[in-house]
Amino acid sequence: MSNSSSLKEFLLLAFPDTWQLQLLHFWLFLGIYLAALLGNGLIITAIACDHRLHTPMYFFLFNLSLLELGTISTTVPKSMANSLWDTRAISYWGCAAQVFLLLFFFAAEYSVLTVMAYDRFVAICRPLHYGMLMDSRGCVKMAAAAWSTGFLCALLHIANTFSIPLCQGNVLEQFFCEIPHILKLSCSDAYLRELGALVVTICLVFGCFICIVLSYVQIFTVVLRIPSQQGQHKAFSMCLPHLAVVSLFISTAMFACLKPSSLSSPILDLVVAVLYSVVPPTLNPLIYSMRKKELKDVLGKMVQWVKGTQQLQLLHFAFFLDLYLAALLGNGLIITAVACDHRLHTPM
């Protein structure tokens, strides 16, 4: 028996015993992580560098990409490291930090998506008041409110969860620290203290969901009244990327929360966790870049700049690419050699 005062670490989900499968897991997560970094990084850079994208819609997309980078960076690198070094351990405070950051990024992301729905509502249903309602000061306040909501929600849950005595061991059947799995380690009915925070969160989630639904009901009502097909297509094209991202976020989160306990198993829990914590940050940049013409144009210009004909740019690009690939290859070979050869498993 153990309790939370003497608990020093948690053990995360065990990966396959064979080294080949562990390496496969590492390279798969590395590819997904780099794709998410590249996609969201390109969107952040494009919006920050091109003044034509300094509009409320892209300002909120900028915030969304930052939050998605935070979400995937909280879970995937630690899982990759554990797989590579054949360990399951995460420190008690490392677990607490992971839970806090995950809740913070998720709650803030959901709040930003709600604000983006309001932005689309004002742009389509109240176009004459758009400049007044969505001025720069108002946008900053709404973004700050979204980030603050995430912080307060995370603080509320972290204070409740990690004040509960834990006496059912330290094994978490998940590849990152997740509140439901931590509560399974609690003593008797001590987890009931988390119900208050859960009720507050459910009210927040439901309120945001109602705002998003009402916004789109009014948007579709107005769009369907537009006489020209071209006008309808333009209006729908403004909303479809956001609607697709919201649907992906809500559907994966709802599946994770409403999954019957009878279906619970380590493999299914792992798949569900990947669906809601890893897939959205990877796919969302693709969804937005495919549907937003202005963003595609800016990204195209960035690619053209890389492909520019000026010799100095090409020389600079080739030089740093060679250095980067050499560093990747060299360090990758050292990591693989040390990890694979038991004779090198020494402190040095």
Automatic annotation (TrEMBL):
Protein location: Cell membrane
PROSITE patterns: G_PROTEIN_RECEP_F1_1, G_PROTEIN_RECEP_F1_2
Primary location: membrane
Short name of one Pfam family: 7tm_4
Residue stretches making up the G-protein coupled receptors family 1 profile domain: 39-288
Keyword annotations of the record: Cell membrane, G-protein coupled receptor, Membrane, Olfaction, Receptor, Sensory transduction, Transducer, Transmembrane, Transmembrane helix
SUPFAM superfamilies in the cross-refs: Family A G protein-coupled receptor-like (SSF81321)
Stretches that traverse the bilayer: 26-49, 56-76, 96-118, 139-159, 195-223, 235-255, 267-287, 314-339
Membrane protein topology class: Multi-pass membrane protein
Family the entry assigns: Belongs to the G-protein coupled receptor 1 family.
Name of the molecule in the record: Olfactory receptor
Organism: Apteryx mantelli
